């Protein structure tokens, strides 16, 4: 999807990148927008294939972008508020910095990525309603023997090291596996999930727990990656993340619960961004 709906604010976007790259992010509140009938939203993101990722043309595309485009249309049509949008990403490949950036932001700032909704995070952030169920996967180099039962991981993956990202639910999953099944497991940290995929593609002594979208990106790019069925975990849901001071949150929930998540246009957004391989995979899980 192109991001033509951002073109009217291109100059604002470029100015924000040059001036506010290291400052606290801040967008207009809904309270002020209702009286002014205009609003500026600031969007930050962490690279996540299919959800929020910069393409070869330098455009940020993905499911989260498309959802926010539709939300913008909803606000303009239903509330009569003209919305401008700018992007500010300090380090799109560092998920921990992304979380910290959203946490310290003010007002109309939206964090776009494959962010899992958790009770702990709800105390720190506002979340949109869940828009998709995640499948966490254990992946490795394709030369590694297949793990079909998680209880056997210490034997099947003997001598291997787990690669993960700090402050992520994927890290928690790895720590849980270490406690329950693999006490001697060594854990290595990288800034982003894309880094972990690069590591396991090259090193048959490393494995990672990542979200399903990285697996399908690896398939599309013909990387030597294997999914281990014994490691599939379908207990997480993704949401758009916001600072606690973002008072657009109830309106975003109103929009998403208005029938949008059951609509044909939403299904097209999922299909367009994840591809047919992912859609067929989800069909096998039903």
What's a concise summary of this model?
Helices cover 40% and strands 24% of the residues. It contains 11 helices and 14 strands.
Layout of strands and helices, then pairs:
Layout: H1 10-19, E1 26-27, H2 30-36, E2 38-45, E3 53-54, E4 60-61, H3 63-79, E5 82-87, H4 95-104, E6 106-107, E7 109-112, H5 119-122, E8 125-127, E9 132-141, H6 153-156, E10 161-164, H7 169-180, E11 186-189, H8 193-202, E12 206-211, H9 212-220, E13 225-238, E14 241-243, H10 249-256, H11 264-285
Parallel strand pairs: 1-6, 2-5, 2-7, 10-11, 10-12
Antiparallel strand pairs: 3-4, 8-14, 9-12, 9-13
Provide a descriptive summary of the structure in words.
The protein is of the alpha/beta class and 286 residues long. 40% of the residues lie in helices and 24% in strands. The protein is elongated. It starts with 9 loop residues before the first helix and ends with a helix. Residues 1-22 have low confidence and may be disordered.
Throw out a few tags for this protein.
286 residues; 3-stranded parallel beta sheet; 11 helices; 40% helix; disordered N terminus
């Amino acid at each position: 999807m192109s991001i033509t709906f951002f073109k009217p604010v291109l100059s604002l976007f470029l100015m924000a990148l040059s001036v506010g790259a290291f400052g606290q992010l801040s967008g207009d509140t809904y309270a002020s927008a209702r009286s002014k009938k205009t609003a500026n939203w600031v969007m930050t993101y962490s690279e996540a294939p299919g959800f929020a990722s910069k393409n070869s043309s330098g455009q940020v595309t993905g499911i989260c972008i498309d959802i926010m485009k539709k939300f913008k249309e909803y606000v303009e049509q239903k509330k009569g508020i003209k919305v401008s949008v700018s992007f500010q990403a300090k380090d799109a490949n560092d998920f921990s910095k992304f979380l910290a950036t959203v946490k310290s932001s003010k007002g109309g700032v939206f964090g776009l990525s494959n962010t899992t909704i958790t009770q702990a995070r709800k105390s720190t952030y506002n979340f949109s309603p869940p828009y998709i169920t995640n499948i966490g996967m254990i992946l490795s180099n394709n030369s590694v023997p297949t793990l079909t039962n998680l209880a056997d991981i210490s034997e099947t993956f003997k001598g291997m090291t787990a690669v993960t990202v700090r402050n992520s639910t994927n890290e928690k999953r790895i720590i849980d596996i270490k406690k329950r099944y693999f006490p001697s497991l060594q854990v290595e940290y990288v800034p982003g999930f894309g880094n972990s995929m690069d590591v396991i593609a090259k090193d048959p002594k490393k494995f990672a727990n990542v979200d399903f979208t990285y697996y399908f990106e690896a398939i599309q790019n013909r990387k030597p990656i294997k999914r281990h069925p014994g490691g599939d975990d379908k207990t997480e849901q993704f949401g758009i993340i916001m600072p606690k001071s973002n008072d657009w949150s109830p309106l975003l929930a109103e929009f998403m619960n208005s029938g949008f998540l059951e609509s044909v246009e939403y299904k097209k957004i999922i299909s367009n961004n994840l591809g047919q391989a992912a859609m067929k995979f989800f069909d096998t899980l039903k």
